[in-house]
Design goal:
This protein is mostly helical and 343 residues long. The chain has helices spanning 2-27, 34-39, 46-55, 62-74, 88-123, 127-142, 145-159, 182-188, 194-231, 235-242, 247-269, 271-284, 290-299, 303-331, 333-342. It comes from Shewanella youngdeokensis.
C-alpha cells in the first residue's frame, strides 16, 4: 500500500507540474506586459518592477522563469486582482466555501435519491418500474445543464415565485461569515432572525443544488443498479438468503456497502465534468462561488484571477480525484488484492 500511495503522490506532482507549465505558457501569451500579467499591478513603480523581475527571474532563460513561476504560485503568491486590487488568494478563500457548500448539497441530494432508486430498479420485478427509472435517468443525463437551470428559474422563480433565483441569501439578513458556509453561519449566528435567515438560505440553494445534482444523480442510479444486479447474484448473498435473513437486512448490511464502492469510484472519475457543470450553474443562478468569480475574471480580462482560478480549481480536482482513488482501493478488498499482487 505504501508503494501505491507513493505512486499516487508522484502522479499528483507530475500532473500539477504539467498543469502549471500550461498556465505558464498561457500567461506569457497574454496580450499584456509580463509584469502586469504576473502581478496584476497596472502601473508598477520602479521598485515593484525590480522585485517582480527578481521574483520571477524575468531576465533569465525560460526554464529558470518556469521554476520561479512555480515557486511563486505554489507559495501562495497569485498576484492581485486587476479589477478589485485585492490579493487573488484572499478572493479565492472568500468564494471557495460557497462552491463547496453548493457541491456538498448537490452530492447529498444525488446520493439520497439516486441510491434508493438504483436499489429499486435492481430489485423490482415490475418491468414498468425498471423502465420508468431508467428512462428518468437517461432523460436527466441528456438534458443540458444550462437549459435545465434556466427552465427551473423560469418556472419556480419567475412564474410561480416559490423560490429565489439568484444569490445565497436575502441581503436584508446581516449574517457575519464565520465558516463561509451560509447554512452553518445562519444557525450559529446570534441574530434574532437566524431561523428566518436559515430558511431563506435553504430556499436560495434549492434550485442551483437540484440543477447541479441531476448529473451525479443519474450516474448514481445507473451504477447502483448495475452493482446491485451483480452483487445480488453472488454466493454470499445466496447463502444469506438460504439462512433466512430478511431481504432488507441482506440489502442494507451485505449488498449495499459493496455496491457503493463502484459508485464512489465513478464519482471520482466525473469530478472534472461536475466542476464544469458547477461553473455553469453558478453563472445561471448568480451563485457567488469560484465558477462565477472565474467567469467574471475572464470577461474583465483579469489575468491574475484567470491564472489563480484555473490553478486552484484544477489542483483541487486532481487532489480530490486521487483521494477518492485511494479511498476506493482502501475500502475495496478486490482492488487491494490486485494491488498487492501487482506489487
Amino acid at each position: 500500500m505504501a508503494r501505491y500511495l507513493l505512486r499516487r503522490l508522484n502522479l499528483f506532482i507530475a500532473t500539477s507540474l504539467l498543469l502549471i507549465a500550461v498556465i505558464f505558457v498561457a500567461t506569457h501569451n497574454f496580450p499584456a506586459s509580463k509584469i502586469f500579467a504576473l502581478t496584476g499591478i497596472e502601473a508598477p513603480t520602479t521598485q515593484q518592477i525590480i522585485e517582480t523581475q527578481r521574483d520571477y527571474q524575468l531576465n533569465n532563460n525560460v526554464f529558470n522563469q518556469f521554476l520561479a513561476y512555480t515557486k511563486q504560485r505554489l507559495s501562495g503568491n497569485l498576484g492581485i486582482s486587476i479589477t478589485s486590487q485585492k490579493p487573488v488568494v484572499d478572493e479565492i478563500n472568500q468564494v471557495l466555501p460557497a462552491s463547496f457548500e453548493l457541491s456538498i448539497v448537490a452530492c447529498v441530494l444525488a446520493m439520497c435519491f439516486g441510491v434508493p432508486l438504483g436499489i429499486l430498479a435492481s430489485l423490482s420485478k415490475n418491468k414498468v418500474t425498471q423502465y420508468s427509472i431508467m428512462a428518468i435517468t437517461l432523460t436527466g443525463y441528456s438534458i443540458p445543464v444550462f437549459w435545465l437551470g434556466l427552465t427551473l428559474s423560469l418556472w419556480f422563480g419567475v412564474e410561480l415565485g416559490w423560490l429565489p433565483i439568484s444569490g445565497r441569501i436575502n441581503l436584508l439578513f446581516e449574517i457575519e461569515p464565520v465558516t463561509g458556509f451560509i447554512l452553518i453561519d445562519t444557525l450559529i449566528s446570534d441574530s434574532q432572525y437566524r431561523i428566518s435567515a436559515f430558511i431563506d438560505a435553504i430556499q436560495h440553494i434549492v434550485l442551483p443544488a437540484i440543477t447541479l445534482a441531476v448529473l451525479p444523480f443519474t450516474v448514481v442510479v445507473r451504477i447502483t443498479r448495475l452493482a446491485m444486479l451483480h452483487i445480488m447474484n453472488q454466493p454470499y448473498i445466496r447463502a444469506a438468503e438460504a439462512r433466512g435473513l430478511h431481504t432488507t437486512t441482506i440489502v442494507l448490511r451485505h449488498a449495499l456497502p459493496n455496491a457503493l464502492i463502484p459508485v464512489l469510484k465513478n464519482l471520482g472519475l466525473m469530478l472534472g465534468t461536475f466542476a464544469s457543470y458547477g461553473i455553469i450553474v453558478e453563472v445561471i443562478f448568480s451563485w457567488p462561488g469560484v465558477g462565477s468569480w472565474l467567469v467574471s475574471g475572464i470577461y474583465q480580462r483579469d489575468y491574475t484571477v484567470i491564472q489563480g482560478g484555473v490553478l486552484g480549481v484544477s489542483l483541487l480536482i486532481i487532489f480530490l480525484s486521487i483521494v477518492i482513488d485511494v479511498l476506493h482501493n482502501a475500502f475495496n478488498p478486490i482492488s487491494r488484492k490486485e494491488l498487492y499482487a501487482a506489487d
